[in-house]
Design brief:
Rossmann fold, Alpha-Beta Plaits, alpha/beta, five-stranded antiparallel sheet, elongated, 309 residues, six-stranded mixed sheet
C-alpha cells in the first residue's frame, strides 16, 4: 500500500540575520493518517520550522510541500486544507468565544453562511467550552484560550491540523480530554502534527515522531520503532544466587541489580527461552519485564546531552 505524505521538507534551512542557524537542513515526512509528534526542547527550532511550513516566514533554502503543493510557490492552495494553532491564538478580548468564531468563520472558512452558527456551536462543544456562555474572551483562563484556539483550527474541517504546544495551560483533566480528541480526529481522517516538549504526551498517543535538537532532526520514525525493546529483561526472583549461577553457564550477559533482581541481555532471543531455562532448573521467577526505552532515553542517546525540558 502506498504512503501519502501530507508534509514533506527537503534540506529545509532557516538562518536569521546575525548568523543564527535556527533550522539546519531538515527532512520531515508527515504521512496521511499520522498523529505525528514533533519533539524538542525550547529553542530547538520547532516553532521556526512550523512557521515556515505555514508560510509565515520564508526559508533560507530548501523546499516545503504541504498537501501536495509547494508552499514556496503556491502557498494559498497548499494551506487550504490546513487548520493551525501556533504561538497562542489571538481573539477579540471583549467578545465571547462564540462571537469570535463567527467572525473567524465569516472571514473565509468556505462553509455556507446558513450553517455557520451550528458549525461554531459544534466545535465549541467538541473542545469543551459549551458551558462558557457569553463570557468575554478577556475573562478566559490560558487553558480556555487554548481550547478556543483549537476550536478555530477545527472550524474548517482540516485535512491537516498543525498544533504548537496545544496543551499549554491545561490541567490534567483538560490534557486527557484533548489527547482523546486528537485520537478521535485521526480516526475520523485528520492528520495531526503536534509540536511539543512533553515527551510523555507524545509517547502516549502519537504514531510517528521526529526529535529535533539544535536545529537538526536527530530521529524520525514510528513511535513503536523508537520504543522497541532494548534487548534487556529484568528478572525478579527469590532465588537470585541460583539464577546467577545458571546465567554464568549460559549465553547471556547479565548485571545483578539488587538482592532479588538481575538484568539479562537476551538480544533478539524471545524472553520465553530465558524463562523456560529458569523453570527447568526450578528457579522461581516472580517477574520478567522486557525493558524498553522511553522517548527521553532515545533523545538523550541521540543527542548525548541534557534532557528535553
Amino acid at each position: 500500500m502506498s504512503v501519502t505524505s501530507v508534509v514533506r521538507t527537503s534540506a529545509l534551512t532557516k538562518r536569521f540575520p546575525g548568523g543564527l542557524l535556527a533550522v539546519d537542513g531538515i527532512d520531515l515526512d508527515v504521512r496521511e493518517g499520522d498523529l505525528y509528534g514533533f519533539l524538542g526542547p525550547n529553542g530547538a527550532g520547532k516553532t521556526t520550522t512550523i512557521r515556515m511550513l505555514l508560510s509565515l516566514i520564508a526559508p533560507t533554502s530548501g523546499s516545503i510541500e504541504v498537501l501536495g503543493h509547494e508552499v514556496n510557490l503556491h502557498s494559498p492552495h497548499a494551506l487550504e486544507g490546513v487548520g493551525t494553532m501556533v504561538e497562542g491564538p489571538a481573539f477579540y478580548p471583549y467578545l465571547s468565544g462564540e462571537r469570535n468564531l463567527m467572525i473567524f468563520d465569516g472571514a473565509g472558512s468556505g462553509g455556507p453562511k446558513k450553517t455557520r452558527r451550528q458549525r461554531v456551536r459544534d466545535v465549541i462543544d467538541r473542545v469543551g467550552l459549551h458551558d462558557v456562555g457569553d463570557r468575554p474572551v478577556k475573562a478566559y483562563s490560558l487553558g480556555m484560550r487554548q481550547r478556543l484556539g483549537l476550536a478555530s483550527a477545527l472550524l474548517r474541517t482540516p485535512r491537516l491540523l498543525v498544533l504548537d504546544e496545544p496543551t499549554n495551560g491545561l490541567d490534567a483533566q483538560g490534557i486527557h480530554e484533548l489527547r482523546t480528541m486528537f485520537v478521535e480526529l485521526v480516526r475520523e481522517g485528520t492528520t495531526i502534527m503536534l509540536s511539543s516538549h512533553l515527551l510523555a504526551e507524545v509517547e502516549l498517543i502519537c504514531t510517528r515522531a521526529a526529535m529535533m535538537s539544535a536545529g537538526r532532526i536527530v530521529a524520525q520514525d514510528d513511535v513503536g520503532n523508537l520504543l522497541a525493546p532494548t534487548g534487556w529483561v529484568r528478572v525478579v526472583t527469590p532465588d537470585l544466587e541460583r539464577a546467577v549461577r545458571a546465567l554464568q553457564d549460559g549465553p547471556f550477559r547479565y548485571l545483578p541489580v539488587d538482592a532479588h533482581t538481575v538484568r539479562v541481555n537476551i538480544g533478539d532471543r524471545p524472553p520465553e527461552l530465558l524463562n523456560k531455562a529458569f523453570v527447568q532448573d526450578d528457579i522461581r521467577v516472580r517477574e520478567l519485564i522486557i525493558e524498553r526505552p522511553t522517548l527521553e532515553d532515545v533523545f538523550l542517546e541521540r543527542t548525548g546531552h541534557g534532557d528535553i525540558r
